[in-house]
Each structure stands twice: as C-alpha cells, then as structure tokens.
Amino acid sequence: MGRLVVVSNRIADPRKTAAGGLAVALAEVLNSTGGLWFGWSGKVVDSTDADDVHFQQAGPVKLATVDLTQVDHDDFYLGYSNGVLWPVFHYRLDLADFDAGYIAGYRRVNQLFARKLMPLLKPDDIIWVHDYHLIPLAAELRALGCEQRIGFFLHIPLPPPLLLAAIPGHDWLIRALFAYDLLGFQSQGDLDHFGRYVETEAHAQPVEPGRWRAFGRTVQAGAFPIGIDVEEFTQLTAAPDAVEMYERMKNEYSRRKLLVGVDRLDYSKGLPQRMRAFREFLERNPELRSSATLIQIASPSREDVTAYTDLLHELESLCGSINGNFGELDWMPVRYIHRTVARARLPGLYRASRVALVTPLRDGMNLVAKEYLTAQDPEDPGVLVLSRFAGAAEQLKEALLVNPYDREGTAAAIGLALQMPLDERRSRHGAMMKTIKRFDVHWWCDTYLEALRQAQAEEKGTSWLRL
Questions:
Q1: Is 155 a catalytic residue?
Q2: What average pLDDT does the segment 394-407 reach?
Q3: Helix/strand/coil (H, E, C) string of 167-231?
Q4: Is the dihedral of CA 153, 155, 157, 162 positive or negative?
C-alpha cells in the first residue's frame, strides 16, 4: 500500500505505544509505510506565530503539527467541537450551545488543516481522518484538488436522525461526509443512524448495502468496532506496577469485595446515576454493606466548562452523602478519586476488583470494559456490569447489561454481580475474551484500511465545490 497519512486533532508518538490510544493501533502500519501523522500541536499562540508547520521525526514516521490561535482554539475546539458536536452526539441537546456562532471557527480550522496538509501529500497516499473535530476536512482537501483515497472514523456515537437534525447546519455536516471514500462507525447502531439520516434528510439513494449516493458523490460506510491491544495489556497486567497495585489492594481490602469505576469526569459517563444506583444497592442489601467498597476514579476533564464544574460538585456531594449515611468507623462504601491514575497501575486495580461498573449514558465504544476483562484471572474472574448504551454492549453480550437510567435495575445487577457463582463468572468471562481477542485493535486497523483500499473511489476529476 502507499504511505498512510493519519490526521487527528491531537497526535501521538507511535514509538510510545505504552500510552495506549491510537498510537497502539497505528504504530505498525505507520512504521511500515514511513507514514505521516498530522494534527494540532496542543499549543495556543499569538496569531503571528500560528502559520508554521512543525516537524518531528519519530523513527520512520514523520509527525507534523500546527498551532492554533486563541480565537481558533476557543471556537473550533471548545466551542463547536465540544460545545455543540460532543453533547449532541451523546444525546445531550440540553447542554449544546447552538447560538454562539462557533461554526465559523470550526470551518476555519478545518480549512487551515487542509491548506497545511495538502503540500505534504504524495500521489499514492492513503489518508485516514479521525473523529468529530475534523468532519469537513475531506471536503476542504477535495476543494484544493486532493484526489487521494480518504477515510474517516468516528470514535464517538452518531445520534439518531432527529437528534442530529437539531444541529443548525446539520445538512452541511453530513454533506461534508460524502467527500470521504469510506466512513467508519463504532457500532451497527451508529451505522443504522447514518443510513436513516442520509435517506430521510439528504434524500440519498442506496446503491448497495453500505453505499449511498448524494450530492454527486457516493460514499461507503461500515461498522468497525475498535478494540484493545490484548497482548500489550496482558503484559501490562504482569508488569511490576500492576502487580504491586494488585497485591496492595488485595491486602488492604482482604475482607471486602471491590467494585471499580474508571472514567473521565464527563456527563456522558453517567457517574451521578451510578452513585445513586450504588446507594440503592446499599439500601436494599444491608447484609452486604460492609463487604463491598466502590473505588471510583474520575479523571479531570474540561473543568473550566460550567457543565463539568456542576458535575464535579454533584459527584462530590453524592459520594459524601453515601459515606456519611452508610459508612462505619472501619469502612467507607465509596473511595472517590478525582485525579488521573497511571495506566501502568490500572490493570492491578482491575484484577483486584470483583465487579467493574461501566455504565455510561452513551459511549462510542468504551475500552475500559475490554481492559477490565483482559486483566482478570480467568480461573477467578470478576463481573462486568455494562451499560446497554455503550458501543461495547453490541460485542460483550455476556456482561450484565443494564439501563443506567434505571436505578433499581442497576442496583439489582450490582447485587447479582457480587454474588455470581464461580462457574457462571468463568463462562461469561471466557465468552467475552474470545470476542475481545478476535476483534482486537489490530483487527480494527487492518480491517478498516483494507476496506478503504477496496472502497470504490470516484472517478478522477470529479468536481467538489467548497462547502
């Protein structure tokens, strides 16, 4: 294949795969093709300094970044990407800031990316664009004459047509997707939402399963659920940091059964609902109270935004209330940690925990669920309580699937998980691990790129008017 060019809002050094994320999936193919990874540097600078492309060599891979001005950062990143698209795509219309006029900044930064990337491209490059920050990038590249194969992968959910249609200019966003040759979604549900939207709102014509034609172009779309690097995470579980964490947790909680939740502090994760369900569990099961402790890690996330500040205060209040009402001198039901825990230590915490609570209100995939299962001892595994609204629920059907809005139902699932017999735990864990190993991150990368190579491209010379 030609050189792989990856474009994402933020980049990563593919040599440092221990950090996880896209670098794990893309390191091999980037290294083998001498690839290019292009994105934002993470720096906000004065407007006079924002025009340069910065290069860094990471082995055979070239990293190229651009800076953003304060206005571009606020409009593109905080404003439209995370103030409009993020809440709507996670079904939270009530939190979207539709009236701020951020869309101009969103388009402006995508045009900047296109202008700076275009001179770096080679004729046989394959371009893979990632996530909601860069939906219009292919259209901007096409307007500059780019004819290379371009794919797009959405890491977050795609909402149903009526929710998507609530975005002012939603038709512009979807039209932009038709500049790609292949669209990838996390789940079949997301793909179905896309198909229904383009047929009802954009009057697209189905060409064949997974292909639609509209706006003078044809686009192919499919579900490509992302996985984890099972081998890498298994090695991480056996490494000294994880083993030390496991042994410490087992010693400190030798008389307890641990439950664990690991999330970013984000309203999509359903943390207040989870705490209320845990409180319901404690109220309904007095005989189990002192035998169960929930460790909830909520990593800081965008705390300068009002919605996140309110969430932080609500979560702190709930945890304090639960501990005040149910705690004993020698036992606190919730250990709440509002900071980031090193990834190298997490497998040990997962392995020591009898139950993982992965209960987002909406999530594209949620890899914590897969990491938790991979870290388990297959002879004595823990139990995954998983939201049916996480993309992972399509694959991990043997988990205890719950509706996170149903407090009593989630509380009952927590009780069932803590008391599940060993044979059932082994059976469920074994079935889910077969799925996780088969559809790992390398399967995701290879399958998507092969589909992009095979996607039927438009004839060269097809015109594409700037949106």
A1: yes
A2: 98
A3: CCCHHHHHHHHCCCCEEEECCHHHHHHHHHHHHHCCCCEEEECCEEEECCEEEEEEECCCCCCHH
A4: negative
335 strand-pairing partners: 295
Contacts of 167 by beta carbon, 8 Å cutoff, 6+ apart: 84, 85, 88, 96, 98, 173
**Which residue of the set 131, 190, 263, 363 is catalytic?**
363
CA atoms within 13 A on the CB side of 37: 25
Helix (H) or strand (E) holding 69: strand 61-69
* Active-site annotation holds for 130: no
- CATH number at 230-437: 3.40.50.2000
Q: Is pLDDT at 392 greater than 50 in this prediction?
A: yes
Asked if 318 and 276 count as a contact pair (C-beta separation under 8 A), the reply is: yes
Mean pLDDT, to the nearest integer, of 79-108? 94
Neighbours of 287 (CB within 10 A): 6
CATH 3.40.50.2000 placement within the chain = 4-227+443-454, 230-437
Tens digit of pLDDT for each residue in 259-282?
Answer: 999 999 999 999 999 999 999 999
**Tens digit of pLDDT for each residue in 401-445?**
999 999 999 999 999 999 999 999 999 999 999 999 999 999 999
The HSE-up count of residue 313 (CA atoms within 13 Å, CB side) is 5
pTM exceeds 0.70, yes or no: yes
Annotated active-site residue in 13, 74, 97, 155? 155
Q: Per residue in 32-60, is it b (16+ CB within 10 Å) or e — as a string?
A: ebebbbbbbbeebbeeeebeeeeeeebee
β-partners of residue 261 are 296
Helices marked H in 7-143: 22-33, 70-72, 86-89, 103-117, 137-143
Domain 4-227+443-454 has CATH 3.40.50.2000: yes
Query: In this structure, how many other beta carbons lie within 10 angstroms of the beta carbon of residue 340?
Result: 12
Residue 152 has pLDDT above 80, yes or no: yes
Confidence of residue 461 (pLDDT cuts 50, 70, 90): very low
